[in-house]
Amino acid sequence: MNPETVAENLRKIRGDIERAGRDPDEITIVAVTKGFGAEVCRAALTAGLTNLGENRVQEALAKIAEVEGATWHLIGHLQTNKVKVAGNQFALIQTLDSMHLAEALARHDPNQKVLVEVNVAREAQKSGVAPENAVELVAGTSQLLDVKGLMAMGPSHGDPTPAFDELRQVRDQAQERLGKALPILSMGMSGDYELALRAGSTMLRLGTALFGPRP
Is the pTM of this model over 0.85? Predict the structure, then answer.
């Protein structure tokens, strides 16, 4: 994977963002580097993608030690027994889904920036708080950590638009409850990011759209 290929893919994605009626400069792209080596991380950085996302803590820590200049996001489920090793390593933990995890993170670093993950797909295999409990979790977590918004995955099958619309609505309800802005809506992956953009996403998590199939 060379930086020129990544840059070309990024230009296509930015064009898709414009066609969705959005300003590319207002959309954060998190380049999902899970399963790829440090050379792909460096290619992303060279192409101008400074936000890199990893699913697994141990894989992320190895790359963090090897790759300089990135802003790292944890986009996979975080177990409470990994909080100590994950703490202070990620600019944004996108997968907070319980008060138990919020409390564990707060004991380590009350300034940690997080997103609350919501299971708007309502699929048992996906992590995230149930949508009907999400506002309460956001309110509780905001007393302990720096909550920046919400995150979700679309459903495994079918049109993801209703799920994305629901996440935006939950975010709006949470903003009203807190009386402050929650600017980040992290939704949209390589297969559904154009629909996510039309539903109001402000942050995309893209892997294969940038780098091709994983090894």
Answer: yes
